[in-house]
Write a structure and sequence with these properties.
The chain is mainly α. It has ten helices and no strands. It is 66% helix and 0% strand. The termini are far apart. One of its GO terms (biological process) is DNA-templated transcription initiation.
């Protein structure tokens, strides 16, 4: 559902005027995606719901300060991410530090072609990822692979998890992610590559495990 109106300026005016229909439509439009992002910072879905609720309250209290230098959606998600970070720090304390210490790197650099190679950065022929099953048994593995993916996504360092979630789960454009997280396009690409590579590596390892 899209928010009705003659554009974002009209929507902001409606929100500032306390238009309940505009608020309800905005909540319906963005809450699912907000929950998905918030869940990356906090340990439970229930806490993510609380973060989103706090964000809507902050929106209503702070809409008069919205200057339009970014889109309303980006401003909304920025507020939500800040709330989620604070809540996540309180709930999980040093969890991210422990994950970084435990997981280390993502994929062995030796699996990629060296600088100067015509296909530098691409997989080496004998070190390419293991193909996923394309058989009836492969469909049976679907739920298991999805569970592994979700588990490994939760293990990623915060920035990688943010970028992968926004790009691959929520379908956001690269430019919007850069604006929202205040990172460069190059940094976004690196974080996305490393996050995807880590998840892919976990899936490969899972498929190699004996039944």
């Amino acid at each position: 559902m899209t928010v009705p109106g003659a554009g974002e300026a009209a929507l902001v005016t409606a929100l500032r005027g306390g238009d309940e229909a505009a608020v309800a439509a905005l909540v319906e439009q963005h809450t699912p995606a907000m929950l998905g992002v918030a869940r990356g910072y906090v340990p439970t879905h229930e806490i993510a719901e609380e973060v989103v609720q706090e964000t809507w309250i902050a929106l209503l209290k702070g809409i008069d300060r919205f200057e339009g230098r970014s889109s309303l959606r980006t401003w909304l998600f920025t507020v939500m991410v800040n709330i989620a970070k604070t809540r996540g720090t309180r709930e999980r304390r040093d969890a991210d530090v422990q994950v970084l210490a435990a997981t280390g790197g993502t994929v062995d650099p030796a699996r990629f072609r060296d600088a100067g190679d015509e296909w530098a950065g691409h997989w080496k022929d004998d070190r390419a990822p293991t193909p996923f099953p394309d058989t009836p048994e492969g469909s049976v593995l679907g739920d298991e692979l999805l569970a592994v993916t979700r588990r490994e996504l939760g293990k990623l360092p915060t920035r990688q998890r943010e970028v992968v979630t926004m790009r691959d789960v929520l379908g956001m454009e690269a430019a919007e992610v850069c604006d929202l997280l205040q990172i460069t396009a190059a940094n976004q690409r690196v974080l996305l590559h490393r996050g995807r590579a880590a998840v892919r590596q976990a899936l490969e390892d899972y498929l190699k495990e004996p039944a």
